[in-house]
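Feature request, filed as a ticket because there's no other form

It would be nice if the structure record came with a short human-readable summary line next to the tokens. Right now we just get the raw output. Example of a typical job, pasted below so the devs can see what we mean:
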Amino acid sequence: MLSPFYQKELVEAGCDEAGRGCYAGPVFAAAVILPKKFRHPELNDSKQLTVAQRDKLRIYIEKKAICYAVAMVDNDEIDTINILKASFKAMHLALDQLMVIPEMLVIDGNRFTPYKTIPHHCIVKGDELYANIAAASVLAKTYRDEYMQKLHDEFPHYNWKSNKGYGTKEHRDAIDTHGLCKYHRKSFNILSTALELFDEI
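Raw output as currently delivered:
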């Protein structure tokens, strides 16, 4: 069972992102404030959960959280400001939407751009330690997966419904065959033997 909070005195929001290492699509981030008595035996880092577990946890988190928010930064902005800054911006955008203003932020990872004047702590593998960060990881992951399913419908030959835009062999082979599309992150210097860049099928 994960610890519910990093500390108990201040209203605390957990933040995490999904899709930072992908070849295509946006990066998503979530911010979550949980109640003091929040518990769920299956809650963990979203990468260690099955799709069914994540989907079930998302419903539970959204029902039980004091408040939560999810935001995204698209691939064009990622190419403009870089993926690290885009990840932080997505977290900031999620925090902007919270109905309760947190007094402390706990961030998964080792770096973060300060948000307003709210103190924060960066915690490596925080989604394996604290429930609010793990909850944020579940929301960011499930919302992004849903979004990539929609992009898959537009460009099915990359099979984003399965690989979610990550650089799997299947995805790399599809890029070699079809080239890059408008949702690929051009700043990632994805190698392709195909020269065509297209905007629609």
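Something like this underneath would help us a lot:
Helices lie at 51-64, 75-81, 83-97, 131-154, 160-163, 169-178.
The CA atoms of residues 58 and 139 lie 6 Å apart.
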